[in-house]
Structure formats: C-alpha cells, structure tokens
Amino acid sequence: MKTIEVLTLGAALAFGMGESCPKQAMQAAASVAGCYQFERDAGAKTLGLPWGVVLEDAALGPGWPLVNDRPGVRRAVTALSAKDRADAPFGYWAAAPGDSIEVGYPGGGATVLFLAPSGKDLVGRGYAAGDVVRPGRPMGAERPSSAVVARRVLCGAS
User: Can you give the residue range of the structural domain that contains 136?
Assistant: First the structure.
C-alpha cells in the first residue's frame, strides 16, 4: 500500500468515516447543524464576527481545493441577521479534534472558529487567519485568539 493511501485511510478513520462509524458521524453532524447567533461581546467585536452562522447538514461540494481532501466537510452560511444570509466569512464546518468543530471559509483566510457543544450552544475560540487584518492592527501583527459564544436560535426567527 502506498504511503498516501495509508495516510488517507488513517485520516478517514480518525474523522469517523470508517465503515463502522458513518452512522455516528451523521448523527453528530445532525446534532450540531442549525442556526447560531454570536454573542455581541468583546471576542465577537475583536474578530469582526457577523450576526451568526448557519451550520447545514449538507456536504460542502466540489470546487474548494483547500478543504476537499478532508472527509465530512459540511456547508455553512454566514448569517447577517436572523433572516439575511451571505457567502462569507463562513462557508464550511468540519469535525476537529475532540468533540469540537472548525468553522471557516473554504477558500482560506478570513476567521477560523474552533467550537465545542455546551448544552445547546457552541463555545470556543476564534482566530483571524490568512490575509485578514483588522482595522487598527499592523500587517504581520500577532493574531491572538478571542473567546466565542454562539447561541443556538430558531432559524429564520427575528
């Protein structure tokens, strides 16, 4: 077996995509999928987070070479308000180590969130990634993480 095939198999099993795990992976995705509103706190302001994010229980689809090699990548949609949607800064979500998920933009850059379930909400940290420079920050400045809280809300409710 080639090294690449072994690495691919190892990655698939690590992300719960082995033959015995697809049902569990689908259940986990279904339990996190939904609409979330970010708390408007210091972390959200530092990261420039939008109103919220919608985590869909649907595959991201082709055309995103930076994340296409990762198993189980799902589609995310940026929520500008309870009802208004946009393509950025979020476009995907995927399993991350432990019980957490990664949320980001499939083209790279922007803001990357690492969140874990806490009751019905998601909590974790966010990082400015790639070419994102927040107003008032110099190019190349250290990009510390900020706390993020995403409260689960009813999709489309105002």
Answer: 26-153
